[in-house]
Amino acid sequence: MAGVTAPARDPGLQPERTRLAWRRTTLTATVVAVLAGKSALREGAGAAGHVAFALCCALWLGLLVVAHRRIRVLALGGRPAALTPAHASAAALCAVALAVCATALVL
User: Fold this and answer.
1) Dist CA 42 CA 61 (whole Å)
2) What's the rounded Cα separation, in Å, for the pair 69 and 91?
3) What residues have CB less than 8 Å from 70, skipping those under 6 apart?
4) Full DSSP string of 39-73
5) Angle of CA points 96, 46, 52, to nearest 5°
6) Which residues contact 84 (CB under 8 A, 6 or more apart)?
7) Maximum Cα–Cα distance across the chain
8) Contact 52, 36 (CB under 8 A)
9) Which CA distances in Å does 8 have to 5, 11, 77?
10) Of 20, 30, 2, 22, nearest in space to 68 by CA
11) What does the radius of gyration of the chain's CA atoms come to, in whole angstroms?
């Protein structure tokens, strides 16, 4: 099969998949924040519960800002710039801390 060439890679597919992954991540974080709020407000968690819920909301907003910036870059088309380590670290920190705060509210 020496004469067979591989089809050209479509550069539009990877940014689209990445954009959709960011959308799924923000949707998941939104569900976590809403469930944390429901837990904090319905079960009378007290001051600590309200602080944890406020922290969940702040972390959710942080993740939303990072994700929105990345989605906007990916939507421009062409080859997107690499995600900076600072933005990647912020997104990971917000996601993990949001999960920890939500878990603390449930337990």
Assistant:
1) 22
2) 11
3) 18, 19, 22, 83, 87
4) HHHHTT-HHHHHHHHHHHHHHHHHHHHHHHHHHHH
5) 15
6) none
7) 72
8) yes
9) 9, 9, 18
10) 22
11) 19
pLDDT (tens digit per residue) in 6-24: 666 566 677 788 888 989 9
pLDDT of 94: 87
For residue 67 the two structure tokens come to 């994700």
Tell me how long the chain is: 107
Classified as helix, coil or strand, 36 is helix
Q: Name the token pair of 60.
A: 């959710």
The tens digit of pLDDT for each residue in 39-82 reads 877 766 678 778 888 888 898 999 999 999 888 888 887 677 78
- DSSP at 78: S
Q: Are 80 and 22 in contact (CB under 8 A)?
A: no
